[in-house]
Amino acid sequence: MEQGMWHGLETADLAQALDANLDTGLAPGTAAERLAQIGRNELSEGKKTSPLMLFLGQFKDFMVLVLMGATLISGLLGEYLDAITIVAIIVINAVLGFVQEFRAEKSLRALKALSAPMAKALRGGDIVVIPASELVPGDVVELESGDRIPADLRFIETNSCYAEESALTGESVPVSKHCDPIKAADIPLGDMRNIGFMGTMITRGTAKGIVVRTGMNTEMGKIANLIQQTETMETPLQHRLEQLGKILIIVALALTVMVVVAGILHGQPAYEMFLAGVSLAVAAIPEGLPAIVTIALALGVQRMIKRRAIVRKLPSVETLGCASVICSDKTGTLTQNKMTVTQLWIGGRGMDITGEGYEPAGGCFEGGKPVDIKHDQSLRRLLQVAALCNNATVTKLDQDPDAIKRKKSKTAVVQDEWVLKGDPTEGALTVLAAKLGASAKSMEGLYKRVKEYPFDSERKRMSVLVTHQGGRLICTKGAPDMLMNQCTYMLWDGKVVPFTATLKQKVNDAAEKMAAGALRVLGFAYRELRPQDASEVESDVENQLIFVGLSGMIDPPRREVKDAIANCRRAGIKTVMITGDHQLTAEAIAGQLGIMPRGGIAVSGQQLNEMTEETLDRLADNIFVYARVSPEHKLRIVKALQRKGHVVAMTGDGVNDAPAIKAADIGIAMGITGTDVSKEASSLVLSDDNFSSIVAAIEEGRGIYENIRKFIRYLLASNVGEILTMFLAMMAGLPLPLVPIQILWVNLVTDGLPAMALGVDQAEKDLMQQKPRSAKENIFARRLGWKIISRGILIGVFTLLAFWVTLRIRPGDPQNLVHAQTVAFATLVMAQLIHVFDCRSSRSIFHRNILQNKYLLFAVLSSVVLMAAVLYVPMLQPIFKTVPLMFRDWCLVIVAAGIPTFLMGIGSVLGTSNKKKTKWPLQGQKSIAR
Ligand code: ATP
């Protein structure tokens, strides 16, 4: 088939040309064959760094090159053993660095794959959700508002469908799409209104299309190289640390030069001092820091995935720890989204509906007595609208063998053996109609749907146009307050009467009563169109409707959410509910969940419309519920909270939520019900749509940040200790306390493993009882800088003391110098390995169980064993210039190594705790009249 001819074909020819079946889709086997033949529906990726390049990259560090040069010189001077050992250490270091970076990169790639797009395809007669990369020409796909079009396709069905194609055509206004053939041969892409292009977005309505081109053959594929953007995955902290790294290099180099100069001035051999200087510089520069930060982030992100939060943008991990407000949708996030109709209100009569879940078993009772449904015209009309204006189906599991498969692919919700396909609000109405004998099945053949006017959270209603016995009928359901504006009549006692202000008040009162009982309320209306009402335009058909009645459905809060909200409060994080639902429903649910404190305010979208920015800013801290809001309100709310200095997390699922999600500091999309648009705008996706997962992610985010601070503290304090030992010795005119190879060894065995183990350390118990940290906080804040300097100085001073004490036994004896250097080496290693446990706590070593982090224990034990090997294996002694230490030496080593950490620990225990408990974030107890 000619590339550009798909738009001209009739639907039947289209199916033939693609050897496809429009009713059942491709058979799974055929699809697999085509996939093998044509290849995946993917745009080719940019170049990746090969593992070899990654490994070689480890040697491009300037100081490593200098060290290698220095080694070469010592090799040429005949110091073969030294040269070989240093090269071995450099290689091992590079291997470690490579493993760290490779792992980090692999995890980042896995994260990207997790957020890969999915598509709803018709395969073997069943709708399945598959990775968009598995689509092949001939696949029939279903699309709805918010979906990104997964391949080039020709529409075969459209309902008020609009697509935003600016990426391809430059046209920023969404264009309407249809499914009729276009006969003109040579037309620009912008005019191909019956073609959906890969990568563009459905902004309104629903559609069905047949895939005609995939992967690099699509229009997007043709320009793929032009639009390929590599998203930066570097977080602000990583960036800042990179800057810090540069400063540290300069400081380390300056100090090293001072050490070398001081050494030479005090009579040390120049060559030895040069090698010691270079080794010191290599050891003191925290070159592993960026990789360890990436690993800590990536592993943290893996932990978040287990807790159902998928991070799309790595920088948000940091921001998560700063979140001070979570703005959450209600339906499905705070509540279960498992709806059941429990009440009806029709023409002044209240009715109760019995039965639970999706099982269509139950009845309708008025004042405790069963209602005679057959003869109740008004009730039957309501059921008719509920069943016709509906896209959800509910079937029994054993009658729907593919349900399990679909459950796995998230297109269905299974509850007590009953399978709901579609929107739960509509599912509840399907079940209601089935319970009362008016199921869609029973109406099959009698009514034919001509057109759908889809629901969206802006209109808050949905209509269908159906033909029936030669006439046409419009059925509408939606939020009562909105729907009433479209109604001029009402059904009262089976008669159509004018919808007077008194009747409207009655409907309002009934709706408010239901809403106050935490029910989700929907209104129902209809109109039989006259033959002259030919227009099918939304504004023409959705008016002069006859109001029928109301339904109230329960949607129980998610069980775990109440605790999660209480957790947030303790963590100084405010929870705000933002919902399209009725204000009273929202308030009632907020009350059940403990969102609304005394003095808290609920405002409606309408009140929000009337508020100036100043008033909103003034009240923002006290508003806990925003009800009946439209997505565009969300943006205003985010901005107001941000102006108040909050770091805002905001959830959303629809197309129109995208701007608010983007503007929020942490945009959160729903993994199950969310549209592609919202997911792409978000930095976090909840795989279970559950509020508690946000709180889990925040907890992990805080933990990751603290772990990063822990190993920064460890690495830098160790480096300060190393440099200071050498520096003070040179200043005091002492011989070298550590020989170059020992310095490199300390760097290798004490830095890498323990620091990585700190990166996966368990969080402190009170992590979620502290206020969120400020987004502007410096990484060295909360006394971290002081801890690094003070511990570093103590480690350096006590290492030197141990060296000096040993040296004084027989000053001037070269054999004793080796002994003293061995003591200094052991003291430095042990001091760091003891200090690493101190780094786990923001207070002191005594505040945490040192056996808790198994990785750390393993890392420390291996470092001790390796050090013992260097001291006691006779073959290694000449290489590392060590002698075996005696019991007396060890006593000195342990005391000198332990003092820095224990001294500070005792100080901390004696001192008062500087932690303050967080207060409830609500300031003042204001309230406004509604
Ligand atoms: P959120 O998820 O933001 O908490 P919500 O899901 O309750 O909000 P919307 O989906 O915008 O908010 O629904 C708003 C109102 O629209 C509901 O209270 C209900 O009256 C009505 N409504 C919801 N779903 C449908 C539907 N499928 N057809 C018609 N009306 C609906």
Automatic annotation (TrEMBL):
Keywords: ATP-binding, Calcium, Calcium transport, Cell membrane, Ion transport, Magnesium, Membrane, Metal-binding, Nucleotide-binding, Phosphoprotein, Translocase, Transmembrane, Transmembrane helix, Transport. The keyword Ligase does not apply. The chain crosses the membrane at residues 52-74, 80-99, 247-267, 273-299, 711-731, 743-763, 784-805, 817-834, 855-875, 887-910. It is a multi-pass membrane protein. Its EC number is 7.2.2.10. It is found in: Cell membrane. Residues 5-79 form the Cation-transporting P-type ATPase N-terminal domain. GO terms for cellular component: plasma membrane. It comes from the Bacteria. Its main location: membrane. GO terms for biological process: intracellular potassium ion homeostasis; intracellular sodium ion homeostasis; potassium ion import across plasma membrane; proton transmembrane transport; sodium ion export across plasma membrane. Coiled coil: none annotated. Gene3D superfamilies: Calcium-transporting ATPase, cytoplasmic domain N (3.40.1110.10), Calcium-transporting ATPase, cytoplasmic transduction domain A (2.70.150.10), Calcium-transporting ATPase, transmembrane domain (1.20.1110.10), HAD superfamily/HAD-like (3.40.50.1000). Belongs to the cation transport ATPase (P-type) (TC 3.A.3) family. Type IIA subfamily. PANTHER family: CATION TRANSPORTING ATPASE (PTHR43294:SF21), SODIUM/POTASSIUM-TRANSPORTING ATPASE SUBUNIT ALPHA (PTHR43294). This is P-type Ca(2+) transporter. It comes from Paenibacillus lycopersici. The lineage of its organism: Bacteria, Bacillati, Bacillota, Bacilli, Bacillales.
